[in-house]
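Let us practice reading a record.
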Amino acid sequence: MAVYSITAATVPANTGYPANLQGLLQLLESYLSVVSSSTLSSIVISSTTPSPSDNDKVWFQTNPANPGEPQSIRLFSSGSWQEFTPFSFGDIILTDVNAEISSPWGVGNTAYVVNGISKLTPVTPVPPTNGRYKVYVGYYE
């Protein structure tokens, strides 16, 4: 498997998350540079699991219920497609009390099925006024 060095520039404060996969790709292109000793093989953009011949590619998984909507970025590692994210299961962040909480985020002390495995999220602390916590779960159905 090839090794790629990814260098990220600083994204300006208050940069919003793109509304669709094309916007995400353009945002990434603007702030990332990739260096490799081999040719970057390519990417797969699909709502379905790539074929084994594509295990050397980056998979931009889209939402099957809303084609083109980004769902996750995955890399094939240790025999399965793993979500590429700076978060780990159970990481908690504070959001506005009115913020929608949906996959890959969940609420505390709740069981979610991720990659066929049931996982229980940690209990969250009492949030401050006008805030609520969300817990990183990973993509779940």
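A brief commentary: The first strand starts at residue 4 and ends at 8.
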